[in-house]
Amino acid sequence: MDTTPAKDERDAGRLTPADDRSTFTLHINGTAQTLTLDHRTTVLDALREHLGLTGAKKGCDHGQCGACTVLVDGRRANSCLLLAVAQQGSRITTVEGLAEGDRLHPLQEAFLERDALQCGYCTPGQICSAVGMIAESADGFPSHATPQEALADDGPVALGPDEIRERMSGNLCRCGAYPRIVEAIEDVAP
């Protein structure tokens, strides 16, 4: 006697391809974008493959290099680690969204003036991370390099070279443009 379950019984409880997708809205660079994507799609892939925003780069795809850094609700995040569907309603800013019209963001200008790049692959992530880092320090969030005496103060954290290097340590540059990156951020940091 055949005890193999019927095909209908085997398929019961399985998701169909349509169940693997959702429609949701992300606010990208100030514009609402309604997308229907597979649940496994990362923010990075949504930006690059579905919206044509190629500033954020796929470096390691493991959240270790920072090339994909974007701002999510004003805080820096590795977009390769974020599922797009989980960011419903979030405000995401990419390097393309930092400029105001033809006027570059002050950090974009500083990176150009200081020649804080070589190949440029990591630069969009570096710039987005620097924007987020400056906001974090302005909000009083300390880092490992923040002096003990500054921890008692609820005000902004001063951004000297050591503080900048510590806060930017999640963004790697294979070309080694670190000294110029720090100088560019110092030019803009309050």
UniProtKB/TrEMBL annotation:
Residues 22-98 form the 2Fe-2S ferredoxin-type domain. CDD domains: fer2. Keywords: Iron, Metal-binding, Oxidoreductase. This is 2Fe-2S iron-sulfur cluster-binding protein. The lineage of its organism: Bacteria, Bacillati, Actinomycetota, Actinomycetes, Kitasatosporales.
